[in-house]
Design brief:
This protein is an alpha/beta fold. It has two domains: about 120 residues, no CATH class; about 220 residues, Spore Coat Polysaccharide Biosynthesis Protein SpsA, Chain A. α1 packs parallel to α11, α6 packs across α11 and α10 packs antiparallel against α11. The longest helix has 26 residues. The chain starts with a helix and ends in a 6-residue tail after the last strand. The mean pLDDT is about 90.
Length: about 375
């Protein structure tokens, strides 16, 4: 029967995909770990950090940036205060007084009025930057001591953007632990496919480096049309100019960030991602997303038609996904995940997928960092 053939193809494709990712993971070497390089051969770099109401997190972020094993005379750390209403700016200014490689600006909304939100801050900081490479992270992140050197050393003449691995850490409850699983799986698959036919799907705005010349070829954020996901939009514009990108599955290129504290905040984050990327998402990745998303629908149909086949399919898929996540965790030197968390992740993932799809269809403004955005501008 035709439906049997169709279901068999879908099942085979899903299982093959996980086997392919596992093959790539097991084949991965350590070429993207930080290397010993003569200091005089390292380029001058600029680290850009946009900070909005981050008084609780900024100190840890700046401490990790100051602790980079990169020559002090070849790094500058540029902090842009994005209209914070807490102590973010005073904290940044205190660090500036003690560390000469830091610069701090208080960026008002009337600066670069053609830009919005975080893109405005990054556009301003990029204009001030002197580095051959611009490294970007967020004020609620903690970067590995070898982070800057690892990203820079991964560049080749045809590479414009290098993206590291971001891990959700500091989880305090089950809800946040399940977000950690979600990030590990997404980041691992995105990064391991970077150097294959598929290439990477995107860069990550809290863990990326871009060649300054490639950035200015796009005209900078002040010339790039507004997007709810400024990092993805920059990635798209850079790719249009013919540059290649690279994503690293490396513990040395790891950045740690915080999970969202509630379903409301998590869905707001996902709503922003989906709305920002849906129009220009790489065509090679659309079949992958469709394939992975259709797993739940396929299981539901099979469960109704033939429960034994459905359970066999789900067991095989779960086992392969379990292996995939655990291998990714080992590659980025993080603790393995419990079997219980991975079982509960099935329910979490299906719920998040469904709710994200609904939010994509509902034309509600995105609420992020205390601002409301529609698809074109902030309010």
């Amino acid at each position: 029967m035709p439906w049997i053939v169709l279901f068999s193809v879908f099942i085979a494709a899903i299982l093959w995909f996980y086997l392919y990712v596992l093959h790539l993971l097991y084949s991965l070497d350590n070429k993207y770990l930080a290397k010993d390089t003569e200091e005089q051969n390292l380029p001058f770099i600029s680290v850009l950090v946009a900070a909005r109401n981050e008084e609780k997190n900024l100190k840890a972020c700046l401490d990790s940036l100051i602790a980079q094993n990169y020559p002090l005379d070849k790094i500058e750390i540029l902090i842009g205060n994005d209209a914070s209403i807490d102590s973010t700016l005073p904290i940044a200014q205190t660090y500036k007084a003690n560390f000469p490689q830091l610069e701090v600006w208080d960026i008002s909304p009337d600066i670069l009025p053609q830009t919005q939100g975080k893109a405005r801050v990054l556009a301003f900081l990029a204009q001030k930057a002197k580095g051959e490479f611009l490294l970007v992270t967020d004020a609620d992140c903690i970067v590995n001591p070898a982070w800057a050197k690892t990203l820079v050393q991964a560049f080749e003449p045809n590479i414009a953007i290098v993206t590291g691995f971001t891990e959700v850490s500091f989880t305090r409850n089950l809800f946040q632990q399940l977000q950690r699983v979600d990030w590990l799986l997404f980041m691992g698959i995105n990064n391991i496919l970077s150097d294959t036919f598929f290439s990477s799907a995107t860069t990550i705005g809290n863990n990326m480096a871009i060649r300054s010349t490639a950035y200015w070829q796009t005209g900078g954020y002040e010339k790039i049309p507004f997007s709810l996901t400024e990092d993805f939009k920059l990635y798209v514009e850079v790719k249009k100019t013919g540059w290649k990108t690279r994503n690293l599955l490396s513990s040395d290129a790891k950045v740690q960030t915080y999970a969202q504290k509630s379903w409301v905040l998590l869905l707001s984050q996902r709503q922003r991602w989906v709305r920002g990327a849906r129009k220009e998402f790489p065509s090679k990745w659309k079949p992958i997303l469709f394939l992975l998303a259709s797993t739940y629908l396929l299981f539901g149909i099979l469960l109704f038609i033939n429960p034994k086949v459905a359970l066999l399919f789900w067991s095989l898929r779960f086992f392969l996904q379990f292996l995939t996540i655990q291998v990714i965790a080992s590659k980025v030197s993080t603790t393995p995940l419990s079997l219980w968390n991975l079982i509960l992740y099935e329910l979490f993932s299906s719920s998040l997928l469904f709710l994200s799809f609904v939010l994509m269809l509902v034309p509600l403004p995105v609420n992020w960092k205390g601002r409301k955005f529609d698809d074109n501008a902030s309010k």
